[in-house]
Specification:
By secondary structure, the protein is mainly beta. Helix content is 9%, strand content 49%.
Length: 120
């Protein structure tokens, strides 16, 4: 059984930090796009630029959103189809369809886990 996860920013958290894995720029581009959660009524926009995957916009409300914010969180690759926004404590685990195209991701944010975002 695993022990508790260290709090973000603590020395224990820094030691438990997952290693970055290399991802080619063309592979990063396959993750870019708009992903929506019907559960949260929100759309996340991901962009690939300069060899990085960025969460660049959050739109609250479905159908274009009534509130938008530009956040620019860098998502660090830590495994196959898994990215972290370290300072925010957010994990995105992507899933693929039968043709190996990215179809969705599962958001993990602290105690809130298993929130599905479907690619638009």
């Amino acid at each position: 059984m695993k022990g508790p996860i260290p709090a973000a920013g603590t020395e224990e958290h820094k030691q438990a930090k997952k290693e970055t894995v290399p991802v080619a720029a063309d592979q990063l581009a396959s993750y870019a796009g708009q992903y929506s959660s019907e559960e949260l009524f929100v759309t996340y926009v991901l962009d690939a630029a300069n060899g990085k995957l960025i969460l660049s916009k959050i739109q609250n409300g479905m159908g274009g959103g009534f509130l938008q914010t530009s956040v620019h969180w860098e998502l660090r690759p830590v495994g196959k189809d898994e990215f972290l926004a370290d300072d925010e404590g957010i994990t995105l685990t992507f899933s693929r369809g039968a043709n190996q195209q990215i179809t969705a991701f599962i958001l993990g944010a602290g105690r809130s886990t298993g929130i599905t975002f479907t690619r638009k």
